[in-house]
Amino acid sequence: MELKHIIDNIKDVLSVELGERRVFDKDVAEALGLSRESLSHLKRRNSIPYEAIAYFCAKREISINWILFDQLPKSLQEKTEKYIYIKYFDKVHASAGGGAYNEDEEYSYILIPKEAISQYKADNLHATKVIGDSMEPTLQDGTTILCDVTCKQIQDGDIFMVHTQEGLFVKRVYADTNNNLTLISDNPQYISTYITKSQLDDVSIIGKVIARIDASCR
User: Fold this and answer.
1) What stretch of H or E contains 105?
2) How far is CA 28 from the centre of its chain?
3) Which of 23, 34, 77, 147 has the fewest CB atoms found within 10 Å of its own CB?
4) Could you tell me what percentage of the chain is helix, strand and coil, using 3-state DSSP and rounding each to the nearest 5?
5) CB 121 within 8 A of CB 180
6) CB within 8 A of 90, min separation 6: which ones?
7) pLDDT digits (tens, 9 = 90+) for 98-112
8) Pairwise CA distance, residues 45 & 194, whole Å
């Protein structure tokens, strides 16, 4: 049994509680009632603070067997299974302001309440972070979004994640009768981008933005 793996499980729980920001060891230490130095010392020794973990689980009514062993006793399975894992591409930032792109496709996982995405398949959803302010007030700088990568059919006015030669963007997308695209920002300070049909070979619709982590994306 590795304390590092246990800490990763605790981070999954805290990622739901803390919302959009990433979870670090200092957050785990605080949740367990430990100092950062104490947790670091325990990690080096692979010494597991069972009492602190038991209190952490009891307070949240989740299974300690899940935290320690990835096992779900039937009596607690229903409460623990109210969350679902979604791929989180924390090194790939979709720009809502222009100019940022990272091809590193490594990912971690975040936990999302099942009821929030009940109409979608979890395997089809990717989470990533928006940078820039061009989609404000709908999407703030730093907002984490969920994108359905199987939904690529343009419906005028929906928000899509789009890859162009300029990078990865989150914009409202409109298509005319000739299949030319217009990428529009919600922030009126930004000009629209017009993509002609002849340029579409250099454009990829990654998927439709279906939600923010904290609320539906409208």
Assistant:
1) none
2) 19
3) 77
4) 35, 30, 40
5) no
6) 22, 107, 108, 128, 129
7) 444 444 466 777 777
8) 58
Contacts of 25 (CB under 8 A, 6+ apart): 7, 36, 39, 40, 43
122 with 102: CB under 8 angstroms? no
Q: What are phi and psi of 9, to 5 degrees?
A: -65, -40
Q: Poorest-confidence range of 74-78, 163-167, 207-211?
A: 74-78
Please tell me whether the overall predicted TM-score, pTM, comes out greater than 0.70 for this model: no
- pLDDT tens digits for 125-184? 998 888 889 999 999 888 889 999 999 999 889 999 998 888 889 999 999 989 899 999
**Strand residues in 117-166 grouped as ranges (E):** 125-131, 144-148, 159-164
Which residues, 6 or more positions from 184, have their beta carbon under 8 angstroms from its beta carbon?
171, 172, 173, 174, 192
Identify whether the C-beta of residue 80 lies closer than 8 Å to the C-beta of residue 62.
yes
Q: Which domains does the chain have, with CATH numbers?
A: 3-81 (1.10.260), 84-212 (2.10.109.10)
* Beta-carbon contacts of residue 158 (< 8 Å; ≥ 6 apart): 172, 173, 208, 209
